[in-house]
Write a structure and sequence with these properties.
The chain is α/β, with parallel strands linked by helices. It has seven helices and 14 strands. It is 24% helix and 24% strand. The strands form three sheets. A six-stranded mixed β-sheet has the order 1-2-3-4-5-6, with helices on one face. Strands 7-8-9-10-13-14 form a six-stranded mixed β-sheet. A two-stranded antiparallel ribbon has the order 11-12.
């Protein structure tokens, strides 16, 4: 099996916002692109590993929130790499319909009040648009794994599942205090916004049952499977959230 390396790229301090490079022997895959203007930080991470933008062979956008999709259009322009995402969030990628946000706690309201999550970004149409439960094999990009629909955080959330038993889950789970990890960095929490906690729990449980051992996320982490399992139990104890803002 080819050796893979996962490189976290901090977009904000304290792991509050992360995107990732998955390095293979024939190039790399970028998972999420951070806030608008994050291309310089991604470029520096590439250079540190003797890579350039054109070494990116695929861009995976886990969901349509600005801290994950904000630099997608620019990164496609710089790298020439195609973007894969899910049709469940397409209207938001195209900027046709504003995102709605289902808060998970008091911090969610404070976070939304900062305006960070409401920033506009350049609209884009993904080159590969997954539909329903379609799975995309990414072996042709030099990475042994696949991309799969994992709804719950948003309708179009997707996850990268690697043969190394690592999963890049976007915002299915977060960790630490103040989403990132000033303290309690190995403690799983809900992200500030989450459409359906029971759907999230089902997807995380499937990942655990499939043998995933490490979970890399947009806010904090990484987490081991046993901590994610504890979080699944917490989510299952919750009632379903109603759509809110």
């Amino acid at each position: 099996m080819a050796t893979l390396k996962i490189i976290r790229i901090p977009i904000l301090p304290f792991r509050m916002v992360n995107c990732f490079l998955i390095l293979g022997e024939e190039g790399c895959v970028l998972v999420d692109t951070g806030l608008p203007g994050s291309e310089a930080k991604i470029g520096r991470a590439l250079k540190k590993h003797s890579l350039a933008f054109n070494d990116i062979k695929l861009i995976v956008i886990t969901h349509a929130h600005v801290d994950h999709a904000g630099s997608a259009a620019r990164m496609r322009e710089l790298s020439g790499a195609p973007i894969v995402a899910h049709e469940g969030d397409l209207k938001h990628y195209l900027r046709e319909v504003p995102m709605t946000f289902c808060p998970t706690g008091w911090f969610s309201h404070l976070f939304k009040a900062t305006g960070l999550i409401l920033q506009p970004y350049t609209p884009f149409k993904p080159d590969f648009l997954l539909t329903n439960d379609e799975v995309m094999d990414i072996n042709r990009y030099g990475i042994h794994g696949f991309v799969k629909h994992t709804p719950g955080h948003t309708a179009g959330s997707i996850t990268v599942e690697l043969n190394t038993m690592d999963a890049m889950v976007g915002d299915l789970v977060a960790s630490g205090i103040l989403i990132g990890g000033i303290v309690r960095t190995k403690h799983a929490i809900r992200p500030p916004f989450e459409d359906d906690p029971h759907a999230v729990a089902a997807q995380l449980q499937r990942l655990i049952d499939s043998g995933m051992e490490r979970f890399y996320m947009g806010h904090g982490g990484p987490l081991k499977a046993d901590e994610v399992q504890r979080h699944v139990r917490t989510l299952m104890a919750l009632g379903r959230l109603k759509e809110g803002s």
